[in-house]
Amino acid sequence: MKKGIVHFNEGEHINLYLLIKSAQRSVASNGKPFLTLILQDKSGEIDAKLWDCTPQDEEDYTPDTVVQVDGDITTFRGKNQLRIRGIRLTTGQDHVKKSDLVASAPMSINEMVDTMNQFIFEIRNPNIQRLTRTLLKRHQEAFFEFPAAVKNHHEYVSGLAYHVVSMLNLAKSVAALYPALDTDLLYSGIILHDMGKVIELSGATAASYTLEGKLLGHISIMVNEIGKAAKEMGIEGEEITILQHIVLSHHSKPEWGSPKPPLIKEAEILHMLDNLDAKMNMLSRAMEKTKPGEFTERLFAMDNRSFYNPLFEQKVTVDS
Amino acid sequence: MKKGIVHFNEGEHINLYLLIKSAQRSVASNGKPFLTLILQDKSGEIDAKLWDCTPQDEEDYTPDTVVQVDGDITTFRGKNQLRIRGIRLTTGQDHVKKSDLVASAPMSINEMVDTMNQFIFEIRNPNIQRLTRTLLKRHQEAFFEFPAAVKNHHEYVSGLAYHVVSMLNLAKSVAALYPALDTDLLYSGIILHDMGKVIELSGATAASYTLEGKLLGHISIMVNEIGKAAKEMGIEGEEITILQHIVLSHHSKPEWGSPKPPLIKEAEILHMLDNLDAKMNMLSRAMEKTKPGEFTERLFAMDNRSFYNPLFEQKVTVDS
Amino acid sequence: MKKGIVHFNEGEHINLYLLIKSAQRSVASNGKPFLTLILQDKSGEIDAKLWDCTPQDEEDYTPDTVVQVDGDITTFRGKNQLRIRGIRLTTGQDHVKKSDLVASAPMSINEMVDTMNQFIFEIRNPNIQRLTRTLLKRHQEAFFEFPAAVKNHHEYVSGLAYHVVSMLNLAKSVAALYPALDTDLLYSGIILHDMGKVIELSGATAASYTLEGKLLGHISIMVNEIGKAAKEMGIEGEEITILQHIVLSHHSKPEWGSPKPPLIKEAEILHMLDNLDAKMNMLSRAMEKTKPGEFTERLFAMDNRSFYNPLFEQKVTVDS
Amino acid sequence: MKKGIVHFNEGEHINLYLLIKSAQRSVASNGKPFLTLILQDKSGEIDAKLWDCTPQDEEDYTPDTVVQVDGDITTFRGKNQLRIRGIRLTTGQDHVKKSDLVASAPMSINEMVDTMNQFIFEIRNPNIQRLTRTLLKRHQEAFFEFPAAVKNHHEYVSGLAYHVVSMLNLAKSVAALYPALDTDLLYSGIILHDMGKVIELSGATAASYTLEGKLLGHISIMVNEIGKAAKEMGIEGEEITILQHIVLSHHSKPEWGSPKPPLIKEAEILHMLDNLDAKMNMLSRAMEKTKPGEFTERLFAMDNRSFYNPLFEQKVTVDS
Amino acid sequence: MKKGIVHFNEGEHINLYLLIKSAQRSVASNGKPFLTLILQDKSGEIDAKLWDCTPQDEEDYTPDTVVQVDGDITTFRGKNQLRIRGIRLTTGQDHVKKSDLVASAPMSINEMVDTMNQFIFEIRNPNIQRLTRTLLKRHQEAFFEFPAAVKNHHEYVSGLAYHVVSMLNLAKSVAALYPALDTDLLYSGIILHDMGKVIELSGATAASYTLEGKLLGHISIMVNEIGKAAKEMGIEGEEITILQHIVLSHHSKPEWGSPKPPLIKEAEILHMLDNLDAKMNMLSRAMEKTKPGEFTERLFAMDNRSFYNPLFEQKVTVDS
Amino acid sequence: MKKGIVHFNEGEHINLYLLIKSAQRSVASNGKPFLTLILQDKSGEIDAKLWDCTPQDEEDYTPDTVVQVDGDITTFRGKNQLRIRGIRLTTGQDHVKKSDLVASAPMSINEMVDTMNQFIFEIRNPNIQRLTRTLLKRHQEAFFEFPAAVKNHHEYVSGLAYHVVSMLNLAKSVAALYPALDTDLLYSGIILHDMGKVIELSGATAASYTLEGKLLGHISIMVNEIGKAAKEMGIEGEEITILQHIVLSHHSKPEWGSPKPPLIKEAEILHMLDNLDAKMNMLSRAMEKTKPGEFTERLFAMDNRSFYNPLFEQKVTVDS
């Protein structure tokens, strides 16, 4: 693999394709404007300064744009920075795609589409099946590209869909052990629960919160989407209210964003599976970066805990 | 005024028109079914037993039905009870209306309709005006008859509309002192903020929570109604999201039912005016029942406090 | 099935084998002692009075004793009571066992022993395997008979072992989806996590808290048992500390009884699986008693929520 | 208007009258003392260093002193700083007053005095009227000059009196809608509620907390002042206890500084009006600095929220 | 000792001097008024009914009155009650004093007065000494008779003074180990800290809360008393503010009634000694009623805990 | 006394014996490794950089090692730093001991050993006495050298034993005033309560948390130690459970680390004495650094409060 942006040291020169994650204009003490960019590739990100920028620069170099950059690595307070010497927009001839520069789910979109369709196919209640299929179609493009969150867990391209696929598989295993669970509600609820994020967030990459995201949040947005879709499709009945409830309650507590707690057993279980998959995602990734015998960095979304990676397992592996 | 149901003493015989507030079937130890009814008139309510009831009785005597009752007042653990001797449904010839038997707002429905129309007329933004007018029309009948709540404040017929009218007047006074406030958002937000209660509650009298009320709550219900109405009317734009936000945030904190806190200044003020009017309603009614120099009963919705009714005011009145 | 104690009505005479769940001596206003007993069979329990009891009665009729009772059903404040006319201890000739009178897990002890041994067999780390096997042996009898708790979930004979078996199966499914999980720690942790209950509680039936239970609690008791066993067996190493940690942290938060939160990923997952199985147990049993279209009674251990049993499922079942 | 201190850029030279807001002595690594000053004018404030200061400098340049300063703007970590070249105390001949250098209420002191006297005149209870008038007289000078707080709301010269005047007007409007309210208690309570700040804070400008402020707080200080004044004036009776209670409870909750919650209806309403006026003050000023379509900075005293300034209003204004 | 009121059984006749603890008038279902009294002697208390009472009875039989009662013990829901046959006020000729009928501190008032004077004598700062002596004089009578609280700890005659004496002795021991402590502040603070209770409560026996008690609380009352006394005595200086602070902060946290936390080291220690003495008082009395090997009743003021009385101590005593 | 490391200024050269408190390896932007050390002597500590370190350096310069250092004081962001020119390990010929470089308790180890033995001698219950003596012996060396904590209170060499000695003296005084207290439980409980810190922490100096410390905590560790020792010594009985309980509950609340609250009166009192001694330690030391008339720095472990050091005391001292 090509050397990524985070692997260069002070004093080195770089010439790379990078994605603009954020861009902010300021005025230097000499009165001239400059841009502070965050640039990223799959290896991570770096802060960069484009001094003496022109109005054209400000217009061109906006978030979510791929650029070709030429510059020097410097350090500021112990952190690498990029001093840009040359920068330009890319064209088709560069043969570089945004997806080459961002992390993404470890499963192809096609595979995820197929899995989800299979689960929808297994939904027996025709109203639930139709509604789920329709809403997935309506938001399909974004749904398979958006991250599950801006940070914390599954915060990469297609993270939302990958999180849903993992939860569906988990739900299938759990429902096999507890036959009282209604898989129609579980599967549909899982597919819909976070779908409002395609409206709450600004995009698949360089994502920020939209106005609707800030004022309503993905939960209320999605409860609405279900209500509007059901009305258009002429579907009525308790199923709709229950699906809206499952979405509404999936964060479980008011202080976590759900105005009603789960009052349907599948809503309670969905909340727990959501939690389980998100935590496994965070833990696995933190563990990968941690040697045996050491503690992970603090995980903010897990009450700021550091987890220990046991040493003894290795000894065992040696023994067996 | 005629002697109400709560003014009779043990041993007295009554013959009154009463409204069934709730009805519950049980089986006595002799194996025969009986009904436990709560019966009410404007003076208050009483528990009543209808022993050895027939299947026809069970069908007839359901909540929200006006009946003619003949019976004796007994006491059980220091509380009056009614032993029913005779009971029958009423007909047109009885010339009794449910509204004769329930408490209601101190303002006529017509007067409240007029006031609200006047405020809607003062809304300058055409989208907000149309949407508010349409939603009020759609739910008009229930809106002017429902209580504002099942208990605590404005829990009488037309309490919802009366609470809205009081808030509108309050908003007008406050906006006159703070001209930065947008009265369009305030007036529309006030009219819509609790409108979801017409779906959350079962009726104007003998109200209980509907399934939608329990699973979604009046806030989410109303955010939805706004979304669906705007879609039907082809209205788009920030106004809709902001009105939805005002409704969504009017309880101010997650633990009080609002998944987002107010993030628009009119949303913040609306929450405060809602609170002020509800508290004045509770305080005024508690004070009316309390002699100077004494404390009110504990007010559950005001942190269980008892308020003191000062003595000194009277002395002053005597002086002046 | 024979008519159980809760199915009799006021005025009926009974003659049954019953188990004493609790017994309390008082003195009547005439100065004579009497016993207040709670008696149970599989159908449920009833309060009973044995008036004018002798010192021999007091000695004989203690908790966890099977008796033959003859008496009359009366009612007191709407609740059935038993007025005892005759009572005696049972002997071998009665052919009645305590297990005939108490609810128990829906799986035989033998089957649970086999399952658990199979899981222990799959533990690859020899220290963990030996320690788990030894501790299970040491407490085997109680472990397979005790309830998982005094109330809330799995509160029946063998409830503890049944809960453990369910969690082991669940852990196997989940570990199949998330291969980063160490099944040695998960399986051993699950078998040991609640084992301290065999010391915390007084017995398999009519269970109350022991002094150690009240002063130390099952978590500290079990951390101790692991420490003492490891010392006796000469096992040292991080594995022991980690197993102690998994037991110590399995309630996840200080206010729920764990002085340390999970800091090992398997400890975190074990906590979630424990929760999931306990909640499924409570929800399934509450749902069984609730008709479609109605809400369950309030479930104290689930934040006092009532869960809704959907109606629509039935319609679907009818259709298919 | 003259260019204020915050409008200069790096490299510019300044020569301005400024007010010392705070002054701190340190010793540089070369062993010589220097002063770190915060200097302000109406436009805002700046950090400044006076190197190699003499003992006379330390004595002269203390908080709340007006100085004439000559120096250069530099930057340190992106923030402007002032390197002082020359500094001197001002004299009468400079014709500069402290009030030229600090922000103040948008109403003249005379106007506020008149308004408050008018409200006191409307108090009918003679004891309440005399006590209020006496206490206002006693603290008059400070009362009309102090800020309402060190930060957050009405934190400018005469902010305290301006906040009181706004609340009085608000109280008048609200009492007109809810005639049960006793305006004597409301008006007197409003005038007295924050009067303790004239003892809690050190002055009208460059305010810090006094020892009494830190150890007792303005609420306890004022409850005391009322008690002492009433004793001196020979006023007895419930009115005094009630006014003390209104002051004591005006922060509403123990964790906000009130050892008793409001137990008089006017105390409850006063708390709400206090809150409403403080929030309107914070919101209006934050909104003034925020363009339509953007969010305000985070407002610490409003749960750290950022408020949105709607875009749509402008469009409407254009339309109408 | 004569048999006390709590030692009689159903059916027995009594003829005793008793103290009225509370009295409430009601109207029976026959329309005639009756009094519900709580009557007490040193052994405890009993509920009593005086049927068909006259207006003279209502005037005579008020709280804190000693009466001679003749009546029969009955039971109601398992609790003894007294049916009054004859009742009369007592006169000098009865030779009965209220103090014969109420529990009181295990130390004479004279002894407590002496102890306290001795401690005041040891205060070296003249201002603190004079102020403490003056305030003690001013409230002396009530101070040596009132309970420390209505319930929970030291809730008997002279409980307040006894609690203060215990704390003074404790303070002396602790100050001997930590010489940094200022005994002037400690001794004066201890004597004054709860003195406001002589205004907060209605009397030494049958105590309830006064209006000042309910609206201001003993802490604010006492801060005021110190302020007024210092003003009268012409004492000024930091000592006064600090003593007021010690009283103000002695409950340590806002939610326990102190608007400021301790910010003087003696205030912090005083809070801890107050707590220690109150808890020892509650624990000792609960333990006296509890057999070895058993748990005390739940102690509401100690987080509702039940404490265990160890068995093993006895064995040791037997051994030695 | 020799000039300590914190008393040097920028530009000065030092040549001192210092103790390494912590050591961390990093890689500079030039790719070469360097060590960041914290070095200390009795006066305090300083950050130091050892550039271009060799593998031998990394091996030698680890925490808790005494070194001889030669270097220059520089400053970085207003804080002194040490640029190391020469560094070497010390040998016997340097005649420097670690104890010369660290702060320690104001009482000799011998004196503390004697005091503790005296208290153990006063324990009358033979089981408690033997167990306490044995555990103290087993951990004696560390027990008399370790700090009581890593920060906050008694965080110096022998701080643990000194804290225990202070608490024992305090317990003796308190038990003299409240004879109901069992001194056997108090003395033994005090000696054992924090003994687990000898396993939780890494050493007497430069202490960090061990793996057992992080995963189990000193409370669980010590409950275990008591259990294992009792088992080895063949001691059984309630005493052991009660001592384990006293240790388990000595932090009083779950959120402070005790899974059970005190349920034995001596456990409750021990918790309060622990608190009292820790707070006196923190307050005394903070006061020593604070001039009269000023506030201490914020004390993190005392709710972040600043305490006031009164001025008036001095005046009094002058007067008397």
From TrEMBL, chains A, B, C, D, E, F:
Domain HD: 163-279
Pfam families reported for this sequence: HD (PF01966), tRNA_anti-codon (PF01336)
InterPro entries cross-referenced by the UniProt entry: HD/PDEase_dom, HD_domain, NA-bd_OB-fold, NA-bd_OB_tRNA, YhaM_exoribonuc/phosphodiest
Keyword Hydrolase part of the UniProt annotation: yes
Keywords: Hydrolase
Protein name, UniProt field: 3'-5' exoribonuclease YhaM
Biological source species: Scopulibacillus cellulosilyticus
Originating gene: yhaM
